[in-house]
Design goal:
4 domains, six-stranded mixed beta sheet, 38 helices
Length: about 900
């Protein structure tokens, strides 16, 4: 027990320093909404400054520590200038990626100034005399001081940000910068102050932590992961909860090695303490996350994806040039080409999961390492032939990708980035960094690789190996391009753009995310195998946190949604053709580090000036060249025919919805029969849109039932309801911004066949508009805008496209939420006629939610009036027009007269 108690106190000391870093992260997030991944690197830089001054230049320890903390504050200020000023218009995810760039720049700067090697554990700045804190339990005094520092810091910050004008001003700026500016507050100055304080705290934490973990770049930078876990538990808001969570993480990490089963297997379970904060991150995101976005909650915008169009002549030319280059290069350049090809394949996995599906994954390089580990171990220990080992590595990377996808089912944006980066570190710590699993000190050897007798050994025949890798890159690029052009690609982009709207059209949101992660994992695994089998001795240490971050940065440079951009970004990787060229031109051992720093700077510049990446810029030039595209053959007639639907009545009984103490709907009942147009009216806040959300499956009722054709559908998901014929438009339109108008309509017309996720990879074909879609395009006169994106449309046009998209799904019940908003009088009249003809000619039941009373009265067969979540009247237009409760609550007293 004495041992456990001592390690608990030691763990609390380490956790207290996690807490200080976490407090800096919370400060920045509270002030700006930016999740600063560079907090650990900021602290590391301050620690190197402080100990270099004290130990090398004999500066007094207090002054050295003060200068180190000041260095952290300066970096914090520079971070604010870059992220919040230069990138003020960028999306939160883009700002997060910028902080990853800052992290890489700081790590590179430390390597250039102080070298890459760890400088050991410096002498503590605090008194280290051992104290007896419990009977027979002795711990160094500095550890007790560290715990006290963290607790005091939490109290001070709590008081500062809750009871001072500065704290209140920070809260005001974080909530609304414009309103704060109108009130006379300088948002920039307040953010600068908070970033400076956060940088100083991070530096102080690293300075105090270095005597515990050592003055090591990797160790001090990786502190950001447990700090992020603690901040996440504190909801990036509570100082007290964040500190307590960090202390608990430190205790658990310290106690795990003392457990009996861990002591029995020290080598195999060496990475388990590292996985503790990762498990906490995944658990917290799963508990707190939401499977579906709430009304009005949108996903942060990402760079626009490419079209996926393939020019055969360009592909053929690239293949010829690539094979000539790989077959004639000397051994050194063949190796550089192989690295470029392998990294490009991994970047293509980022294009799929982030560029297409919108899921920011920082685990792709770790998944690549896992795929390599599977293939290499099977090749080395089981004698599996290279082609089969490669296929095994690709196939077994998929389950890991699906595991990484689990947080994506309930987390998005920055939360998902934290979870996936944590999982990447867990894979590296538990598997790739575990010598027991990677072959011990002798490692894993893969010499003599061949393809059914034809040797492609990366050392003996580097040109052959590079050529094989290049062919695999071309094939992978074609697969990703096919995906983009096919139905599956449109589904992924629909989910990326707007999950609610995608689900309302029957697109399986969860299935799309799992598919994207699974496919991207397979591609990443392929890239990992190509990268690792280049040498005879496989190196797994390269698949670390920095490798995962760098791959995302390379993807940003080339273009997150650009297939050709993958090759452009890959040239900047360590050992790739870009660094090889500079190494040959400049004989400086620090060239690789400089390339990494310059690549990170380029990421920041591109986020500001060309967020779609260099690949998109080149593609714009390429579109001017004549050429044809593959995969645009017509589909069969069966794909074009109208859907066979059973028209069924909808019966809603006693629906009640509560949001906390607010009753949004109170015992609402109504019916909709086939071919009937039912109007739903009421003042703002009456519960109309909430009722639509309940019936279409986006909001769960507290009580009541919904029946379709006599069948209960209360437990059906929004996707299933959509596939069974319940369609809707949205009050805020909610078109898929990354898709053209035609593609928006094609997503709705898609039958959502699951087998398309496989066939699209080989032959996507061309989805011919259905008969219904062609008629709807003609009805709303949309021919001229089919190739435009929603951002290019007027408000009225966008509204019509939203209604047309809902109709293209060929529903049997259609809910229209304020469809006439933004339309002129002529368009409103045409809309009313279209709704009437839709119901009369096709037998579709329509529910029209609208504030335009004349339109409702002229269009609807029956009207349901709501007020404060209750039905106050139901009847024909004439009956509703004369109903006294409706007149009093909605139409106005004068209407009665």
């Amino acid at each position: 027990m004495e041992t456990y108690a001592r390690f608990a106190i030691l763990g609390m000391a380490t956790g207290s320093l996690y807490a200080l870093t976490a407090l800096g992260i919370v400060l920045v997030y509270r002030a700006s909404g930016v999740l600063n991944f560079a907090a650990g690197a900021t602290g590391a830089f301050g620690a190197f400054v402080a100990y270099d001054l004290r130990d090398t230049h004999d500066v007094q320890r207090e002054l050295a520590m003060a200068i180190g903390i000041a260095a952290g504050a300066v970096i914090g200020v520079l971070t604010q200038i870059i992220v919040m000023t230069l990138l003020s218009r960028a999306a939160p995810v883009a700002k997060l990626i910028a902080t990853l760039g800052i992290l890489t720049i700081l790590v590179g700067a430390i390597e250039l100034i102080w070298g890459e090697e760890s400088r050991g554990q410096p002498r503590s700045l605090l008194v280290t005399t051992r104290r007896e804190v419990l009977p027979d339990v002795f711990v160094p005094q500095d550890r007790l001081v560290l715990i006290g520092i963290a607790l005091v810091a939490a109290v001070i910050l709590r008081l500062l940000y809750s009871a001072t004008p500065f704290g209140l001003a920070t809260a005001a700026v974080a909530e609304n910068r414009r309103v704060a500016a109108i009130s006379g507050l300088s948002a920039t100055r307040i953010e600068l102050a908070n970033f400076a304080i956060a940088g100083a705290i991070s530096a102080a934490a690293a300075i105090l932590l270095a005597p515990v973990l050592g003055l090591d770049i990797n160790a001090l930078t990786a502190v950001v992961i447990p700090a992020l876990a603690a901040a996440l538990i504190g909801r990036f808001a509570s100082f007290g909860v964040t500190v307590l969570a960090a202390l608990a993480i430190g205790v658990v990490q310290a106690e795990i090695p003392q457990l009996g089963f861990v002591k029995d297997h020290p080598e195999e379970l060496a990475g388990l303490p590292t996985a503790v904060p990762v498990l906490l991150i995944v658990l917290v995101t799963a508990i707190r996350g939401r499977g579906r976005l709430q009304r009005g909650e949108l996903i942060a915008r990402l760079p626009l994806p490419g079209t996926g169009r393939i020019r055969p002549e360009l592909v053929a030319a690239a293949l010829v040039v690539g094979l000539l280059a790989t077959s004639t290069a000397n051994a050194a350049w063949a190796g550089a080409l192989t690295i470029t090809v392998a990294i490009a394949i991994v970047i293509l996995s980022v294009v799929v999961v982030t560029g297409y599906a919108g899921q920011l994954s920082l685990a792709q390089f770790a998944i690549a390492g896992f795929g390599l580990w599977v293939a290499a171990r099977l090749y080395d220990t089981q004698g599996l032939l290279f082609p089969f080992a490669l296929l095994a590595g690709v196939a077994l990377a998929v389950p890991l990708g699906l595991l990484v996808a689990l947080p994506a089912l309930r987390a998005r944006g920055v939360d998902l980035a934290v979870a996936t980066l944590g999982l990447a570190i867990a894979v590296q710590a538990i598997v790739l960094g575990n010598t027991e699993l990677t072959g011990g000190y002798s490692g894993t050897t893969v010499k003599g690789a061949d393809i059914f007798g034809w040797s492609i050994d990366g050392v003996a025949h580097p040109n052959r190996y590079a050529s094989v890798g290049f062919v695999l890159l071309i094939v992978t690029g074609l697969v990703v391009a096919n995906l983009r052009r096919g139905r599956s690609g449109r589904r992924l982009l629909a989910v990326r753009s707007n999950e609610r709207a995608a689900a309302s059209l029957g697109v399986g949101v969860y299935g799309a995310k799992l598919y994207a992660f699974g496919l991207s994992a397979a591609i990443a695994g392929l890239g990992g195998v190509v990268l690792g089998f280049k040498d005879q001795a496989v190196r797994f240490d390269q698949f670390n946190i920095f490798g995962s971050i760098n791959v995302v940065q390379y993807a940003v440079i080339g273009g997150l949604g650009s297939i050709g951009g993958a090759a452009i970004g890959a040239t900047l990787a360590v050992g790739a053709v870009g660094s090889r060229l500079l190494t040959d031109l400049v004989s400086d051992p620090d060239t690789v580090t400089w390339i990494t720093i310059l690549a990170s700077l380029q990421v920041i510049v591109l986020i500001r000036h060309a967020p779609d990446g260099l690949g998109a810029q080149i593609a714009d030039l390429g579109r001017r060249l004549p050429g044809l595209s593959w995969g645009r053959s017509a589909t069969s007639a069966a794909d074009v025919a109208r859907r066979e639907r059973e028209f069924r009545a909808l019966d809603v009984q006693n629906l009640t919805v509560r949001f906390g103490g607010v009753v949004a709907l109170d015992g609402v009942s109504f019916t909709v029969r086939p071919g009937e147009v039912v109007g739903l009216i009421g003042p703002n806040g009456a519960g109309k849109t909430t009722l639509l959300d309940v019936v279409t499956g986006f909001t769960k009722p507290a009580a009541g039932s919904i029946n379709l054709g006599g069948q209960p559908i209360d437990r059906w998901s929004p996707e299933r309801r959509a596939r069974e014929g319940i369609g809707r438009s949205f009050q805020a339109v909610e078109l898929f911004e990354e898709l053209t108008v035609e593609e928006n309509l094609l997503v709705a017309a898609d039958r959502q066949a699951p087998w398309r996720y496989l066939t699209d990879l080989v032959r996507p074909g061309r989805q011919v508009p259905s008969d219904a879609m062609a008629g709807i395009v003609s009805l709303f006169e949309l021919e001229a805008v089919l190739q435009q994106r929603p951002a290019e449309l007027s408000q009225g046009q966008a509204r019509l496209v939203g209604i047309a998209r809902a109709m293209c799904a060929e529903p049997t019940l259609l809910f229209l939420d304020e469809p006439a908003a933004g339309l002129d009088s002529h368009e409103r009249e045409e809309l009313g006629q279209a709704v009437r003809s839709l119901a009369a000619a096709n037998g579709i039941g329509v529910v029209l939610v609208e504030h335009d009373v004349p339109l409702v009265m002229a269009t609807c067969d029956r009207i349901v009036a709501l007020d404060f979540g209750r039905v106050i009247a139901t009847g024909t237009p004439d009956e509703i027009r004369a109903h006294p409760d409706v007149v009093a609550s909605y139409l106005g007293e004068e209407a009665h007269a």
